[in-house]
Amino acid sequence: PDPTENANRKKTAFQSVVNKLSYSKVTQNLFDTMADNGRLSRLTDVINLYLELMSAHRGEVICKVTTAKALDANTSKELNGILEGFLQKGQKLHLQTEVDPSLVGGMTVTIGDKFIDMSLKSKIKHYTGILKSASI
């Protein structure tokens, strides 16, 4: 059996889908190149990076906030206002929220390349480490 047969079948199937969606020639060439090099499994990564670049081009700053429980409308609005204070003129905040009950309380904030951990989980871990290392 020819080892390229399966790859060729995948590429042909993918091309038929792409052609039906009528993408630009540049986009079709990107997909063809990725298929030729066996990189279609990385397509989601490429798309996400492209979206991130376009977001930066539009002046959007992605901010990811993770809390122990869902934020109510008032708290979310207040947090949004505070975070907008960190932006430069012309930038727009693109807030993404997540819930992670393991944080116990507080929140973590990732804005641009900065990460702030204000969760109870990290404080408990920190103080537990101090207590364990102290000789009592």
**Total beta strand runs:** 4
**Spatial ordering of strands, largest sheet:** 2-1-3-4
Low-pLDDT segments, ≥5 res: none
Give the helix tally.
5
What would you call the shape? elongated
Share of helix among residues?
40-55%
Amount of beta strand: 15-25%
Radius of gyration: 23 Å
Structural class: alpha+beta
Total domains, how many? 2
CATH fold title of the largest domain: Glutaredoxin
Largest sheet: 4 strands, mixed
Mean pLDDT: 88
Distance between the termini: 70 Å
Instruction: Identify the CATH class of the largest domain.
Output: Alpha Beta
Assembly form of the protein: single chain
Identify the CATH architecture of the largest domain: 3-Layer(aba) Sandwich
- Taken in chain order, the helices and strands follow as HHHEHEEEH
Protein name: Oligomycin sensitivity conferral protein
Subcellular location: Membrane
GO molecular function: proton-transporting ATP synthase activity, rotational mechanism
GO cellular component, one term: membrane
Describe this protein's structure.
- Helix content is about 50%, strand content about 20%.
- The chain folds into 2 domains: about 5-55; about 60-135, Glutaredoxin (3-Layer(aba) Sandwich), CATH 3.40.30.
- Helix 1 (about 5-20) packs antiparallel against helix 2.
- The chain has a 4-stranded mixed β-sheet with strand order 2-1-3-4.
- The chain is built from 5 helices and 4 strands; from the N terminus they run αααβαβββα.
- The chain starts with a helix and ends with a helix.
- It has helices at about 5-20, 25-35, 45-55, 75-85, 120-135, and strands spanning about 60-65, 90-100, 105-110, 115.
- The protein has about 140 residues and is an alpha+beta fold.
- Belongs to the ATPase delta chain family.
- It is found in: Membrane.
- It comes from Magallana gigas (Pacific oyster).
- InterPro entries: ATP_synth_OSCP/delta_N_sf, ATPase_OSCP/dsu.
- GO terms for molecular function: proton-transporting ATP synthase activity, rotational mechanism.
